[in-house]
Amino acid sequence: MAAIGKIREKSGLLLVIIGLALAAFVFGGLIKNLGKSKRIDQSRVALVNDEKVATQDFSERVSEQADILKRQQKKSSLSPEETYQNVMNVWDLMKRETLMRQQMVEIGLLQQVGNSPKPQVSMDEYMDNLIGAHPNKEIIRNFSDPKTGKFNPQAVSNFLNYLEQTVNSKDPKQRSQALQSQNQWNMLKKYIKEEIPVQKYYDLLTKSYYLPKALAKMEFADNNQMRKIAYFGARYNLVPDADAKPTDADYEKYYKEHKYEFKNKKETRKIQFITWDVRPSKADVIDLQKEIQQYAKDLKTVDGQDITYMVNRIGDNRYDSSWVKKGSLSPFIDSAAFASSVGTVLGPWTANGAYHVAKVVARSLRPDSMEASHILITYSGAYGAGQGVTRTKVSARALADSILKVVKANPAKFNKLVAKSDDDATKVKDGSLGWFANGTMIPAINNACVKGKKGQIELVETPFGFHILRIDNKSKLEPMLRVAQINLPITFSQETFNKVYGKAIKFAAVNQSYASFDTSSANQGLNVQKSNFVNELSKGITGHKNSRDVVKWMFNDKTKVGTVSSVFDFENKVMVAVLTDIRPEGYLTLDEVKDNIRVLVVRDVKARILEKKLKNVSSLSDAAKYKSTIDTATLAFASYSLPNYGPEQNVQGRMAVAKKDALTGPVKGDQAVFFFKVLNIGKLPAKEDIKYIQQRNTSLFKQRVGSAAYRAIEDKAVIENFLYYFY
Fold first, then answer.
1. How many CB atoms lie within 10 A of CB 535?
2. pLDDT at residue 225 above 70?
3. CA distance 520 to 725
4. What are phi and psi of 118, to 5 degrees?
5. What pairing do the DSSP bridges indicate for beta strands 529-530 and 268-277?
6. How far is the CA of 634 from the CAs of 159, 215, 459, 572, 646, in angstroms?
7. Cα gap 571→75, rounded to integer Å
8. Helix/strand/coil for 380
9. Is the pLDDT of residue 128 over 90?
């Protein structure tokens, strides 16, 4: 947001606002938040089973991935949250690579040579992954026919021949393109050689799985032996909460039975915090009104490139040179703009939390949409050109000129010559680009269609190559405008920010303990919020963007329970926090989970009460006494849930082994205490397709083995993570 751009250096101003008496606090908070332990080895970001993940290697991978993300998203920089998410993605990737490499060295799929494990990959295996019967998925993706989706091994051979022939070409453009393609190929080759042993590893796991016939028969019975069952449940809401107050013994019993559920895999911490919102003052609004009015005056006198520079320099938006039709502008100015002459300044007006002013820059009669077809002739180095394109720009121009000459002489030949187009997507549609709105097509093609007449054929050059362009149709002409607009967010000034920041830093300075923090916040009527438990790699505090620095402070070596932070500032708010809880790695104590398990413990107490009340039940007809009805269902052991109650594993398990016609109960379930009777036990189908069950289970195992095996490896690994000292 532009708001954060308004906030400049604040340390000197704050000393004036708060007073010299707080200088020591500010300095002390600065030192405290440096938080870099002298014991940390700066050359490593983690240890994975005692293997070092080097800081330099990690940083290079982070930088590479960030560049890829920026290219994909077409942006010059990533937000703080995107940056940190990229760091976490790279960490997950490098952690996985390290753990899998260690596993493969241990079983001999990789050979350790010095510090570098070398894949045990034969030339036959390698070539099989390129052009053999088992091509690698990335080879298939890169060398499949775009029209049919079918992999063509010959395309791989052609590409390798192209590299061999042109990598030393005397033509600098050809050589540059070939070297670029060779670099990409080398990366792909490295990936394939590393992927082969990984696939072998998972193949070994998959081949080790076998479901014996005896177990397959048991599964067949679990899925196919159906039982008709009548049942009812006395729901727990029959017992008022006031009558089901758990004792310490009840909590202790539940905790012991479920302790395995309360293991904390990583140390987690929790804070309480106060935030002060920073909002524009009346004086800020008046100043912004004066500012936008001055911009309105300035807009009247600027033109040409100066207007572009002015919009880009001042506002919260970039100059947009697009042509717009009536109804596309803000309703505050749309009608007025189309009724005004070129040079008219409109506004200021207020909308969407900003002041706006606009100027009509140009007016024209233009088609709203157009239809065209093209034949694209591309060349090596053009944008989007395939790796196999070896044609030079000069030869591409010559070919395009010759096609243009033919179709201008005989336009009927256009569709036949589309076969020479390098645009496979439009080639199958006789070169048609279809209808497109004015301003949405590549500028050179868009402008040619606007200026040209229906049926006109001409040559247009774009970054993709040379286009023999035919204008097929155009909508009727209508008035369109180019409008320059300045958007000025209604935000706070530096002075307003400093006042709010001053309140926060004063609060932090005089409340350096949890008790003082708690008392002062209550006395001042400040709203204290609580965070969830977070670990050292959490991206921030829920509900607060760009709050990673808060997490870093929470896990600083010097931050203890009761430590009060210095001031954190976000886009339009500031925060002071106090660390209130640390949960170490390992099993949580009963006190730490007591609030979370209360509902379940109360349920157990209610079950005990209901079981006593239900001990004299002799028939399912007693259901009405407990505000229930008798349900019937046909179930197998593998059935997922009990109709009208949901999944009831304990109850359904008892139903699967109970004797016919015997009343069973009370049985404690998740939703109620149950009684049931097995009315009928069906016979198993005569045909047992055991082979199918074995194949299905093998297939399911194969689908799960990749993620499940890695989770098991990760769970057993000893990982020391120092990322939070760096990011």
1. 18
2. yes
3. 32
4. -110, 130
5. antiparallel
6. 62, 23, 73, 60, 14
7. 21
8. coil
9. no
264 pLDDT above the threshold of 80: yes
Band (pLDDT 50/70/90 cuts) for residue 118 is low
How many CB atoms sit inside 10 A of residue 178's CB? 22
13: confidence class by pLDDT, cuts 50, 70, 90: very low
Q: What is the DSSP string of 231-243?
A: EEEEEGGGS-GGG
Residue appearing with tokens 């001053």: 502
User: Residue 52: helix, strand or coil by DSSP?
Assistant: strand
Residue 635 has pLDDT above 50, yes or no: yes
What CATH class is the domain 369-474?
Answer: alpha beta
CB-based burial label for 610 (10 Å; 0-12, 13-18, 19+): buried
Reported as half-sphere exposure (CB side, CA atoms, 13 A), residue 255 has a value of: 18
Instruction: Pick 430 or 177 by higher pLDDT.
Output: 430
Domain locations in the chain as residue ranges = 2-35+266-280+493-584, 121-207, 226-264+590-681, 282-367+484-489, 369-474
Burial class of 660 by CB neighbour count within 10 A (0 to 12, 13 to 18, 19+): exposed
Nearest partner of 520 among 276, 274, 270, judged by Cα? 274
Q: Are 230 and 663 contacting, i.e. CB atoms less than 8 angstroms apart?
A: no
Over 60: is that where the pLDDT of 79 sits? yes
Given this model, what pLDDT does residue 28 score?
40
CB within 8 A of 91, min separation 6: which ones?
Answer: 45, 46, 58, 537, 723
**Does residue 16 carry a pLDDT above 50?**
no
The reported pTM is 0.70
Please answer whether residues 366 and 429 qualify as being in contact, where contact means their C-beta atoms are separated by less than 8 angstroms: no
Cβ-count burial of 591 within 10 angstroms (0-12 exposed, 13-18 middle, 19+ buried)?
exposed
Residue 11, pLDDT score: 36
Burial classification of residue 586, based on how many CB atoms lie within 10 Å of its CB (0-12 exposed, 13-18 middle, 19 or more buried)? exposed
> Nearest-CA neighbor of 89 among 537, 533, 708?
537
626/198: higher pLDDT: 626
